[in-house]
Amino acid sequence: MDDYGEEWEVFHGTFDGAVTYAKLADGAKFAGNNIIINGNMDVAQRGTSFASPVNNAYTIDRFQWNFSGAGAVTITQDSASVPDGSEFALKVAVTTADTSLAAGDLYGLQYRVEGKDVAAVKFGLSTAEQITLSFWVRSTVTGTYHVAFRNSASNRSYPASYTINAADTWEFKTITLTGDITGTWNDSENTVGLFLFFTLAAGSTVQGTANEWQAGNVNSASGAANAMSSTSNTFHITQVQLVVGAEAPRFQQRPIGEEFALCQRYANNHNLATDGAATGMCVLTTAARCVLPLSTRMMKAPVVTYSSGASGYTALNAGGANLTSTSITTSSADTTSLTFQLTVASGLVQGNATLITGGSMLLDAEL
Questions:
Q1: Which region holds residue 26: left if phi is over 0, alpha if psi is between -120 and 50, else beta?
Q2: What is the pLDDT at residue 319?
Q3: For position 249, what pLDDT does the model report?
Q4: Which H or E run contains 95?
Q5: φ and ψ at residue 348, rounded to 5 degrees
Q6: What pLDDT does residue 316 have?
Q7: Distances (CA, A) of 220 to 22, 139, 149
Q8: For residue 353, which of 312, 316, 308 has the smallest C-alpha distance?
Q9: Which of 348, 356, 358, 341 is nearest to 286 (CA)?
Q10: pTM
Q11: pLDDT in tens, 155-185
């Protein structure tokens, strides 16, 4: 076996789709063209552990937990055992099993690709291009799994199959398909151009025919494994890469600063103590209005959650005291800045400048 093959199999990896030295070498032309953001699970602005996340909750940046059913999981940014080239993997650990799937039950990890990022695939046209998805995966449950490719309306789907051959062992997978030549597909900014859905378990009504485009919201096919069947089950994934073309290049790791900025287009967890204070003016002795410029232009005007709570913010008033907030509200938010008002009990000097130096907020502009 050549050196590349030996490297891929350090973690007992297996190859789906005949990954060869030639393909990997030719894949160098795709350097930096991974459509997936945070495919190596390095950025976790919302936290590193999520117990019983609700449906469509974001966990590790850009990856959602999507489900319908009685089961529950804990999702973590895991570093216990990962493939070469990774520091982290996304780990799903089953905490409430679903041993008998109802017809509409569905569990999986979802990634929303912005329309502009897949415009080159030419979905919906007769000239649609081939795309290749690759990733490292590990599960305690062996068998057939599926990754669903769906349009934004979820009425065109392609459940691509892959096999986990050995329990709790890292395996490298590749999936190549031609984009859908029918249906309606978004290819502009600020829209979902493609859903990727890594299915862990699926009931009969969300199953279809594997490895072909079809009408409907289809995420799996008959005979698939049920990774939700036991509280002993785990599922890990990392180095997720999607490129235009029929070849699987070596995983292209972006510089961490670039990866972080790409994530901040969709979510920005800003800590005023470490990431930069907000500046403003005291409009009353009990209120200061402040502006926070954003380091990265966001995809759309964000929804703001003040994650430190009403009393978690500190106003440093020029000529006055360092005061703790009693409430905080958004005045306005756009793609480049946030304006908010901080209220304190008393003690601000009206007309003086102020700094908000403590507390944090999550700005959410996800698709």
A1: alpha
A2: 64
A3: 93
A4: strand 89-96
A5: -75, 150
A6: 82
A7: 31, 17, 10
A8: 316
A9: 348
A10: 0.90
A11: 999 999 999 999 999 999 999 999 999 999 9
163 vs 166: CA distance, rounded Å = 9
CA 356, CA 313: separation in Å to the nearest integer?
A: 7
- Residue range 29-49, pLDDT digits in tens: 333 599 999 999 999 999 999
Cβ atoms within 10 Å of 80's Cβ, excluding its own: 9
Amino acid (1-letter code) at residue 231:
T
- Spatial CB neighbours of 47, under 8 Å, sequence gap ≥ 6: none
**What is residue 28's predicted lDDT score, i.e. its pLDDT?**
36
* Residue indicated by tokens 């002993």: 232
**Residue 193 and residue 186 in contact, taking contact as beta carbons nearer than 8 Å:** yes
Question: Which candidate, 277, 298, 296, 297, places its Cα nearest to that of 288?
Answer: 277
Question: Which is nearest to 354 in space by CA: 314, 311, 318?
Answer: 318
94 with 71: CB under 8 angstroms? yes
> How far is it, in rounded angstroms, from Cα 70 to Cα 111?
22
Per-residue DSSP letters for 43-78?
Answer: --TT-SEEESPPTTEE-STTEEEEEESS-EEEEEEE
CB 361 within 8 Å of CB 332: no
pLDDT-flagged residues of the chain (< 70): 1-32, 319-321
54 exposure class (CB count in 10 Å sphere: 0-12, 13-18, 19+): exposed
b/e burial code for range 343-356 (CB count within 10 A of at least 16 → b): bbeeebeeeeebbb
**Phi-psi sector, 216: left (phi>0), alpha (psi -120 to 50), beta:** left
DSSP 15: B
> How far, CA to CA in Å, does 308 sit from each of 43, 58, 154, 295?
20, 19, 37, 20
Q: Which helix (H) or strand (E) holds 324?
A: strand 322-324
